[in-house]
Design brief:
Length: about 120
């Protein structure tokens, strides 16, 4: 299993973290999760600082690299750079050394699951 880690810094201000998450959930996650080899995602947020990490998990390194090099990924980074004043940092790729899961089932998922579901309902 392989992982792509992308770091962003949300701009300061009320609701900016949620706004950034909605952009990602609406424009990036649906396309990413539909790609061959996609295994899962973690969205990590520090609500105090606005720092966020996206960790996407991939079956193999070829699928990871194809996803990273895909045109949709480049366009998503461009869209994100308009929102994030520090830009979106170049993704880093890793081999997963240890994964023990599952963390959540389909009915759970942390506080971001509600935002994700709202974005999916808006898209329908």
């Amino acid at each position: 299993m392989f992982a792509r880690v992308t770091y962003v810094q949300a701009p300061e201000g009320e609701g900016k973290i949620q706004e950034g998450l909605k952009i990602w959930y609406q424009n990036v996650l649906p396309i990413t999760s539909a790609r061959e080899g996609f295994q899962g995602v973690l969205s990590l947020i520090d609500p105090e600082t606005g720092k966020g990490l996206s960790v996407t998990l991939w079956e193999g390194d070829e699928e990871l690299l194809k996803s990273t090099e895909a045109e949709y990924h480049k366009q998503a980074i461009e869209r994100y750079s308009d929102f994030f004043p520090e830009g979106v940092h170049d993704p880093e790729n890793y081999q997963v050394n240890l994964y023990m899961g599952p963390i959540y089932n389909s009915e759970e998922g942390g506080p971001g699951l509600e935002i994700f579901r709202e974005t999916q309902a808006e898209a329908s």
